Amino acid sequence: MELKRYGKSDVGNVRSVLLDVHSACYAEETDAFHSRDSFSGFVDRWSANDEWSCLVAYENAEAIGLAYGAPFSRGAWWRGSEAPREMAATDRAFALSELMVIPTWRKKGIALRLHDALLYGREEELVTLFVDSSHPRVQALYETWGYRKVGESKPYDDSPTFAVMVKRLRP
Question: How far is C-alpha 39 from the chain's CA centre?
Fold first, then answer.
């Protein structure tokens, strides 16, 4: 497996790959929130951040997973949730916006590899992410990676309720 890193200047070249991985991961979903069009909007908003960072996992030139995110701007936090007390002590948090692996490639350690590679060398003190609350096994997996739930959020009318999770990257 090969991991390739992309930044804001690369989004034009990798955007369709991100959309294709998403489509493969959410092929069974029928709600509008998980649609390709909706995800396209999220890709555009996140990748507009100058510090957007993205990794794509490839196996024999086939994209099989992705992870991306960006640091929050000073004082910013997830829409629809209260910032946890850890944020009072820092303004340096990285938002892990997306982490997904195509179903046939799951349970092979690819998600953790993408996660760790995306966060390697980050200067932020915290990393945070959303997990769909209807997927407790995914939340439990993140807990084994050192995350803890600090709240819940329903940022959009058509979105699921998410567990807001935080992990300290450095003391």
Answer: 12
Are 71 and 8 contacting, i.e. CB atoms less than 8 angstroms apart?
no
- Residue 36 CA to residue 51 CA, distance in Å, equals 24
Least confident of 3-12, 23-32, 73-82: 73-82
Q: Could you identify the residue written with the tokens 């909706």? A: 38
- Four-way CATH pick for 2-168: 3.40.630.30, 3.30.420.40, 3.40.718.10, 3.40.50.300: 3.40.630.30
What is the pTM assigned to this prediction? 0.92
68-73, long-range: CB < 8 A, 24+ apart? 68/18, 68/97, 68/98, 68/118, 69/94, 69/95, 69/96, 69/97, 69/98, 69/118, 69/127, 69/129, 70/46, 70/94, 70/95, 70/97, 71/95, 71/124
Domain boundaries, the chain: 2-168
